[in-house]
Design a protein that fits this description.
The complex is a heterodimer. By secondary structure, chain A is an all-alpha fold. Chain A is about 85% helix and about 0% strand. The mean pLDDT of chain A is about 90. Chain A is built from 10 helices and no strands. A 6-stranded mixed β-sheet of chain B has the order 6-7-8-3-9-10, sandwiched between helices. Chain B has a 4-stranded antiparallel β-sheet with strand order 2-1-4-5, covered by helices on one side. In chain B, strand 7, helix 6 and strand 8 form a beta-alpha-beta unit. In chain B, helix 4 crosses helix 5. Classes of the chains: A mainly alpha, B alpha/beta.
Chain lengths: ~250, ~240
């Protein structure tokens, strides 16, 4: 393990130990703040109860990511290929970010129902933006001298896109995707808070109402773990694909 | 013959050049020699149609053309190799972008790799080889354009002195072995003297040809050829005078 990794691990250990000690010393009731050991125990022991909810939330997030990818990539490419398209659409893109997405959650439940659709939609609108913007920036960042070379080779736009622009933009695309997957969990959970019959957000609201605080924390722990796994997977994929040094 | 007549390009009403005229016989090696920032690259961009010309005519082999974009190959001081492709795939780009027969192109590129001393490095990535080898690969790619006319934009100026000397001999092959017509811009007087049939010394702002020197010496030439040294002194004196004026 690296030095910085050791420091980070030590810091986490210190915080958890402080938390555990403080709760014990001041005898804080479990329903207000459970100690980390209790949270971990709940997360493991009640896993059979939590897992189905985690699976639902995970599916919502993955579907959201998938939808974001299949919409953001063509849109970014279209905006890059035709500046007219970018000019026409960018006000909408910016405006869409000015609206707090969470404010839309109750409406989405009305429109799309209590099922997965409204949560997938929430996740999608949250992830969509960083991917589109970063991919567009990546495509635009291509060195004009390379473009000239491709023009002189007589390359079509499609050939130039696949051989030059797309690989060029990949690092920025992945940066956007990382941001996207790390906020995707927020979208899905907010959607579940507002109205759902399953999912980690639903579990949190239910346990919260019953003062089952350790279960609320356990759900958060699972959620964080899912976010981390997604983040790591994107990182691994990036390493696998981008093997060159620019 | 490449004939350029009264070519002009303006930025904000100011001429970068307004009456550029050149004639390149087929198979000749012509060099534009001038200080950095005198408008050489704009001139090339105008020739290749990357930026549009404001006036003047260009004709190649007797036919008037709008620009040389589809007629010439181009080599830049940056190697412009794609870091995600092997040297071979980089060399094959011109064939790939134009949908040529890839098997034939691969054979041809293989021969050129051998000829230019890159054999054995076909599957290396650009970041795994030296700057000189990258520029050799760029030279192979330039030849893979399969065009008779070649524009060289300070192709060796980013290299160290020793590598540059070696590659100057390879640039000469473009003319002697591959029978290309070459127009090169450079600010390196020695390079111009070694390679050129004609040297056109450029004056800045607006760019124009202030002097034409014809070099009838056989190639390859030696650095210490007395005639070359004499011409060099002459050119340097001219450049210094131009700067003082």
């Amino acid at each position: 393990m690296t030095r910085t990794g050791m420091i980070a691990l030590g810091l986490i250990g210190l915080i958890l130990a402080g938390w555990e000690g403080a709760v014990k010393i001041w005898a804080v009731p479990v329903f207000i703040l459970p100690p980390p050991s209790r949270i971990l125990e709940t997360a493991v022991v009640q896993a059979p109860q939590i897992l189905p909810h985690a699976a639902v939330t995970g599916a919502e997030i993955c579907l959201g990511i998938f939808l974001a990818l299949v919409t953001a990539i063509p849109l970014a490419v279209a905006m890059f290929a035709k500046p007219m398209v970018e000019k026409a659409l960018s006000p909408f893109l910016v405006a869409s970010q000015a609206i707090p997405v969470f404010a839309l959650a109750p409406l989405l439940v009305i429109w799309l129902g209590y099922g997965m659709a409204s949560k997938v939609f929430m996740a999608w609108i949250i992830i969509f933006f960083p991917i589109t913007v970063s991919l567009l920036q990546g495509l635009k960042s291509c060195d004009p001298e390379y473009r000239t070379l491709f023009t002189l080779m007589g390359a079509s736009f499609f050939k130039t896109l696949t051989l030059l622009y797309w690989p060029w933009a990949l690092p920025q695309f992945f940066a956007g995707l990382r941001v996207g997957v790390s906020v995707a969990t927020i979208g899905a959970v907010i959607g579940e808070w507002v109205g759902a019959q399953q999912g980690l957000g639903f579990l949190m609201i239910q346990s919260n109402a019953r003062l089952q605080t350790p279960l609320v924390f356990a759900a958060i722990l699972w959620l964080a773990a899912m976010g981390l796994i997604l983040w790591t997977l994107v990182g691994l994929l990036e390493k696998k694909i981008i093997t060159w040094k620019s | 013959m490449l004939r350029i007549t009264d070519l002009a390009k303006y930025y904000d009403g100011q001429p970068v050049f307004s009456k550029m005229g050149l004639q390149l016989p087929e198979g000749s090696f012509q060099v534009l020699l001038g200080p950095s920032g005198c408008g050489k690259t704009t001139f090339f961009n105008t020739l290749t149609g990357v930026t549009s010309k404001d006036a003047g005519t260009i004709s190649w082999q007797g036919k008037a053309v709008d620009h040389l974009g589809r007629l010439c190959a181009y080599m830049h001081q940056k190697d412009l190799l794609l870091p995600w492709f092997s040297l071979m795939d980089n060399a094959l780009l011109p064939a790939r972008t134009r949908g040529r027969n890839m098997a034939a192109a691969r054979d041809r590129a293989g021969e050129l790799f051998f000829r230019l001393g890159l054999k054995g490095y076909e599957s290396h990535r650009p970041d795994q080889v030296s700057g000189g080898m990258r520029q050799r690969c760029a030279l192979v790619r330039t030849l893979m354009f399969d065009r008779d006319l070649i524009l060289l934009d300070e192709p060796l100026s980013a290299l160290d002195a020793i590598t540059r000397q070696r590659l100057q001999h390879l640039l000469l092959l473009l003319q002697t072995e591959f029978a290309k017509t070459i127009l090169m811009i450079t600010h390196d007087v020695d390079e111009a003297l070694l390679l050129a049939d004609d040297i056109f010394v450029l004056s800045p702002m607006p760019m124009g040809i202030s002097r034409h020197i014809k070099l009838d010496l056989p190639k390859p030439r030696a650095f210490d050829d007395p005639h070359l040294l004499h011409t060099k002194a002459d050119i340097l004196a001219h450049l210094v005078k131009g700067e003082a004026a």
